[in-house]
Amino acid sequence: MNKVFLIGRLSRDPELRHTTNGTAVCQINVAISRPVSQGKDPETDFINVTVWNKPAENVARYLSKGRQVAIEGRIQTRSYDNNEGKKVYVTEVIANNVEFLGSANDQNRAVQSAPSDNPFDVDMPLSETTSVDNDPFASFGEKVEISDSDLPF
User: For residue 153, is it within any domain?
Assistant: First the structure.
């Protein structure tokens, strides 16, 4: 079985390209902290992830450096000859599913707030859909008014 689950933050902005037949492909790099012994400096792995088709377009449109994501996919290896004729081996994750975690404001909040020693001190951010000014459905169709008498329950 070849299945990978990752949660991390984008280390750079997504790079969207299209193949010659018009298929969208997006390259992202996810920074993931690795557990270390107490007293040592934290270590981070930077994982290359490839996203295809409509999800690739959504990743490029809605994500940017610093945003947190959850990736479900598979590991793939490939090789190619570079300009100098040397064989280059690449290991990457091919994403089957990309979930956007947090909100665009969370990356700013994470940088500005210092970590707490209290494990129960959790700052739960509001989701993007709770803000009237940031309505993700604002461009979909017309507004529909519903009264209590219209509800079937």
Answer: no
